[in-house]
Amino acid sequence: MKWIRYTSNAATQYGILEDQRVVQVEGDPFNGYKKTGTVLDLSDVQLEVPAVPSTFYCVGLNYTKHISTEGKSIPGKPDVGYRANNALIAHGKDVVMPRDATKIHYEGELVVVIGKKAKDVSMEEAGDYILGYTIGNDVSERNWQSTDRTFWRAKNSDTFKPMGPWIETDVDLDRMETVVAVNGKEMTRFKTQDMLFGVERFISTMSQYLTLYPGDIIWMGTDGESPDLCDGDVVDVTLTGLGTLSNRFVRQA
Amino acid sequence: MKWIRYTSNAATQYGILEDQRVVQVEGDPFNGYKKTGTVLDLSDVQLEVPAVPSTFYCVGLNYTKHISTEGKSIPGKPDVGYRANNALIAHGKDVVMPRDATKIHYEGELVVVIGKKAKDVSMEEAGDYILGYTIGNDVSERNWQSTDRTFWRAKNSDTFKPMGPWIETDVDLDRMETVVAVNGKEMTRFKTQDMLFGVERFISTMSQYLTLYPGDIIWMGTDGESPDLCDGDVVDVTLTGLGTLSNRFVRQA
After folding, report:
1. The domain spanning residue A85 has which CATH number?
2. What mean pLDDT value characterizes chain A?
3. Closest CA in chain A for residue B73
4. What's the domain range around A25?
């Protein structure tokens, strides 16, 4: 089942995507819903980011090739990091590269969307707290990433966190691959199961110290390398079963 | 003027504090309001955190004594960091020290509450985007802070971010002091004007790359040192003109 979040007639709400059509609902995937009987064409609505988290988690280092590219050592345990809501944009929106940005890379990532309040959850129970999965592009300015004291502008400048296009509730993580293409040409491909620490491990570990809330998101890290992106490049991140998150990169005017 | 956020009759809303009484309003400080004519006793309402941010910013290193205590070098520019909403608790609520936490410290901080959407703002204009100020206690587990790869549990475990008691719109930062007391005994005192980078500098710098939204908060850093806190300790953080943020620290059962 596919949940989309969209704007139509100036109202933003959740709906269910069925065969390229949007089934309108009352309610949302977190607190219950019922179908209204109204159906819209997907092309007639404005896609929004599929979740607006209370807290935006991001794993950072979770695949070995990316860790060596970053010059980091392999983490011994799942320590999660953070990103910022201001940077979120939907599928199809432009990533704006600031005038003084000089080395912008993509990072295609699996995104977990939390469905229920989770505290002190075991690895076996963790799946019960997941609503579904979507796609993220953890856009990064590598020079700022290495010289600033924090990731504030390197990873959290406005528009640097494309997410979408929708939430898929039924996936098989063991059979999934992430493929990133620039202007239609494949550049990066990696298997989801190559994560150092899996989704259940992260949710269980985090929930020993903190409460995860419905709509919270966990970006699960990336593998491989990105070329330096240029004005006009279109980056497509495809995950098996989740669709394609596509965004154009444009230089700030 | 003092804005409080409170719960009464199962509804959470903003009100104006006047002489220990809560003047009920329709609306809120960000989108406009009018007084309803209803007035409640402060003792009859449940105080809530005075803002729930879209993004929770925290400066980290902004006073020289604290920076040397942390063994860090003086930052050359204002690079902001992040904290997590799950950790926020109101004035008067207990900070729960996890069973395996061994070295818990307070950090008394000035908190800026953003009042209007801010992007590309000059230092001179920055003040126009501030609703007011409140108090934060950036509770930290120092062993996790030094051994984990990120601050996720060291600074963002549930209840580690007390904030309040309310938002004061009229302050004179140049005359303010932060005083932290444990069980009524003063332990730390520092002047707000000793910040390396001031509020306007941070807002202006951040807004060149990101949009600040109404209700976003910026915690401005701390100075001095904390003793190791024990089960039952009460920590009071007082800032001139802002009142006192008081929270008891209790060991997780």
Report:
1. 3.90.850.10
2. 97
3. A149
4. 1-46
